[in-house]
Amino acid sequence: MTLTSKTLTGKVAIVTGSGRGLGLAYAQELARQGASVVINDVDQLIADDAVASIVTEGGQAVAVVAPVGSTATAQQLVAQAVESFGRLDILVTNAGVLRDTVVWKMTDDDFDTVINVHLRGTFTCVREAAIRFREQGEGGRIICIGSPTGQRGNFGQTNYAAAKAGIVGMVRTWSMELARANVTVNAVVPVAATAMTDTVPFFKAFNDAAARGETMPPFARRVLGYGTPQDVAGVVGFLASDAAAGITGQVVGSGGDRVQLWSHPEVVATAFETGGWTVESLSEDFSSLFGDKLQSVGEKLPELPAELQPVAK
Prior knowledge:
single chain; 313 residues; alpha/beta; Rossmann fold; 8-stranded mixed beta sheet; 10 helices; 8 strands; 42% helix; 14% strand; SDR_fam; SDR family oxidoreductase; NAD(P)-bd_dom_sf; Sc_DH/Rdtase_CS; oxidoreductase
């Protein structure tokens, strides 16, 4: 990390789940832009290393070691920002965990743990930040991290899909509620080589290349929009800046060489039946009216080029 650009000088940011991976990349980018940063992780050593990575480059950072989800942690994060740096301007809600399994094997704890960290944790942190922003009266930036799974679903991720879809729904609501306070609220949908994708065979070659410090091939960076955490950090830094003051309630995808704007759900077809629809009329007409407009689910990944196919052992 090299501290060169200073578009966020004087700003203070909280980044949850920022000890490593995407969260650390976001925190480092905000610091590079001049912001003072509150790091958050559940591991003291990892949090300390993250703080050191910023401080040794001339930035300012402190850590709050606590699991995201509870109101107490959210209050602690905001209080630490104010105590250490005097204010709060930016919140990035990134903390997350996975408990993947198919629905008939998913336990209550599997479901509740993911919902608590991702969905409730986003809510509690945003609520505390919104209170602080409104008290300060100078606006603010809220950036919530979503996922392609929340947009399209994914096999074995009932809990994660529900949480990430819920986050986007909250972002749209908060963008309306906080508009008069000059607080923008947006979601970022990242795609990057992280610990969460290390176990996916499709991405193994790309993750291995990134771990070796090699540049990922154009197929990954362009076709898949798949790169490093640092590739996504620029979008977060931009949305946190004054340059993004007019952007709110949006879902921005980022990964590799690609940036995308996701649409909001929209009606794709409408039909009317005088007197209302019955089981009989729907049985007769549904296919002809809507059959060619039914929506797909999940992500359809392209086939790997021959040179990137794993070698059989």
